[in-house]
Amino acid sequence: MLGALLDPALGPLLGPLLGDVDVLVALIAADHDARTVGPGRGPDTLAPMARTVITFGTFDVFHVGHLKVIQRAAELGDRLVVGVSADELNLRKKDREPVFSEAERMAIVAALKPVDEVFLEESLELKRDYILKFSADVLVMGDDWEGRFDEFRDVCEVVYLPRTPAISTTALIEKISSAT
Hints:
alpha/beta; Rossmann fold; 6-stranded mixed beta sheet; globular
């Protein structure tokens, strides 16, 4: 299922590279700015009046819940911009380091077809700045954040999507840890 969502240009590369994320990260970094990636996509390739959707997340130990929120967010507009939480931000917000580095997580998210642009989210306090920088029309967050971003309704529509039931990165990490 994940293969169907990969950008066709990256698809042939990902098969042999999935076991070596460092190579994938190096390839993306070589072709794109490390903080804003998306092959051949971005603001300069937009049709006039495109509707931009922005969402944020850690996207650590990527799972079907992450995939579904990205798919549903993309359906709300013409362009999807994703902020991936920096390692330091994740440590402050969740009191643990992510399993995958910010560069690896950005590479995984950038390789998904629905994603047009990826950037590094360095601070929760900069959400308004990110919304304005990327000219977002819609901010999408999981419903576990319900109400926390309503203050941005003055600059964009705010949509809270239901989380995928019975799946979370924390639960996956705990399950993997208990099996070893």
